[in-house]
Amino acid sequence: MTMPEQRRILATAIPGPLSLERHATRKAELANGLGTTMPVFIDRAGGGVLVDIDGNHLIDMASGIAVTSVGASHPEVVRRVSEQVERFTHTCFLVTEYDGFVDVAAALNRLTPGDHAKKTALFSTGAEAVENAVKIARAATGRPAVVVLGHAYHGRTLLTMSMTSKNVPYKEGFGPFATEVYRVPSPYPYRWPSGPERAAEEAFEALKEIVTSQIGATNVAAIVAEPIQGEGGFIVPPPGYLKAVQEFANEHGIVFVADEIQTGLARTGAMFACEHEDVVPDLITTAKALAGGMPLAAVTGRAEIMDAVAAGGLGGTYAGNPVACAAALGALKAIESEGLVARAREIEERVRLRLEELVAPFSVVGEVRGRGAMIALEFVRPGTTEPAPEMAKAVVERCHQEGVLTLLCGTFGNVIRLLPPLVIPMDLLDEAVDVLVDAVRSVA
Ligand SMILES: *Cc1c(COP(=O)(O)O)cnc(C)c1O
Q1: Which of 261, 283, 285, 290 maximizes ligand 1 atoms within 8 Å of its Cβ, making it the mutation to test the pocket?
Q2: Which principal EC class is assigned to this enzyme (predicted)?
Q3: Where in the chain do CATH 3.40.640.10 domains reside?
């Protein structure tokens, strides 16, 4: 199968007639709880393009939520997956071993920040990686409590949903929640009450107060933080905050876990977003971009912490599936050999200034923020910082009609996030930004 033509093509209205028909069937067959951002059915995808069953070529500014950083059909991923499928699809690593699992672990031990001895365990989904990071931290410290941030997103399982901040749609009706999860304020510069320059220090003071006087530092197993908050709205913590938290954690024997599931593996213009802040986490969770679209996740960290769990305590039937591992080796090779870390920075340079032109005193765009190929626009009522989710939604819908797939995020649903594949051709990226900028102007 060849790569789809790297061009935006509007063959029908979007969604087209075939997609509309299938969507009606889907509605009848699938549970309502499964949402969809853009109701088009995809026939093939690769590079920076998704081709739907009506023949529309959409520009991909989502990467399946930061997953297909190397594109949805990178030749190196396709080749290795095909080869692996022919050899064997599964043994269960808990039953018999294979090289792919060990090779992915070794690659993550090498690529993650810090030159200490590291070990890795593989899983299938991001939520599972976060759950296991907590299990490992609890086993290593003998402590129960987990500290998370406001606006955090860590997944949809019971523990990770409990660690997630936003109620609707993630938590509403799904309680009771897991115990021993404590929340501290997120230093959200744009919305920090006393101003962005006070955010790092005041949020860190609040964390210290909550940990030492409310929970007791000796009861805390882990502090878990996304180095840039993803679903919460692409919130970049102010400089110094993560470093202060990491040092505080170290002082008190608390495991500092960086959830890099969305930010990791080149997305932000560094292999890991922690590197921008010179932070070396004790444990790091990865998933999304790890395996070029196949389900694979990992916890990587200090060998002595990772080894705290006795044999049999970690794993899962599908954890580190050989086909997913083959895909990961292809994706990691592409990230390294095609210089995708640098590409993410180029994407930022190409996009950021153009988007910043949309920010003005009475604009609907209150802020442009992010790092690398993880850039967002926050929508507000002109002249205020009051969230304007209906504005963001209108812009996204306009983009979709024009064949550009963009996503919303944010606690208030008022943030448009851009997560293009890192392999997107630059002219397609420019065209997607043209469409987005026009959509903002027309909605405003
Ligand atoms: C997506 C995400 C998760 C959950 O990953 P799943 O594979 O959907 O379970 C956890 N943490 C962060 C930061 C994420 O972006």
Answers
A1: 261
A2: transferase
A3: 77-337
